[in-house]
Amino acid sequence: MGSLRGVLILVGVALLQWAVPASSSCKGTDGRPGEAGLAGRDGWPGIRGDKGQSAPPDVAAGPLLNGAKGKRGPQGLTGPMGYQGDPGEEGQSGAPGPTGSRGGDVNQARTVIHRSAFSVVRTLNTYPQNSQKVIFQDAMVNTPGDFSLSTGIFTCRVPGVYYFVFHAYSKVSMCLRLKSDTLPPTVLEFCDYNSRETGQVLSGGGVLELTRGKKVWMEGFRNNQPASVTTNTEEKKIIFNGFLVFPTS
Q: What's the pLDDT score for residue 180?
């Protein structure tokens, strides 16, 4: 009796639910997605596969064949020099050379040596005259005598290339030129305009190629100096040097 009553109650509840339509407002909210799980561990290594079949004989022998010889490449850069090797063994003595010709007389050999050099000094305190040859008083060197003190002229005896240079000390402005009958008149001119009371040194020179008989000398000349310098009698000194560099014939 009790079990029959329970069955009737269940049937009634079921009919009641079927009769009453469900309302959309009774639906619950959707749940949120769950969080991602942790990454799994690596699996165990797989089993080694079976050995493959051998290649055919003609295919297997292909990589063993040598190709055609290529072209020769460009030469590389020269490497650094190696260390010096140990000295080799001393070689055998060579055969004696032929006998030389007999030498000439010592005095005769001296005559073919070409020499020409001079160094002369002007000691006068007067100003060198314009366009006049400078005359020198002392000769420190004059070998073998190609310079004339009385005329102030060097005369070429040995054709060749010569070097000439002069140094002049003065307390006033001075202009000097190196002259030669092989040069234009004004090619080697030198001036020093002294703006101080102390003395200054004027220097000049040149290299000349001379033939036999050509002459070289020095001259004073007027440029921008005041006229009063020509009467100045303070200390002055001019040194004139020249020598043969090498003969040309």
A: 95
The pair of three-digit structure tokens given for residue 88, joined into one six-digit string: 């080799």
Residue 139 identity (one-letter amino acid) = A
Strands, sheet with 117-122, edge to edge from the N-terminal-most edge strand: 138-143, 117-122, 237-247, 160-170, 200-210
- 83-99 pLDDT, tens digit each: 777 888 888 888 888 88
What pLDDT does residue 109 have?
Answer: 47
**Neighbouring C-alpha atoms within 13 Å toward the C-beta of 203:** 3
Residue in 172, 221, 223, 174 with CA at minimum distance from that of residue 199: 172
Tokens of 202: 């004027």
Distance separating alpha carbons of residues 149 and 13, to the nearest angstrom: 163
Give residue for tokens 């009553």. Answer: 5
**57 preceded by a cis bond (ω within 30 of 0):** no
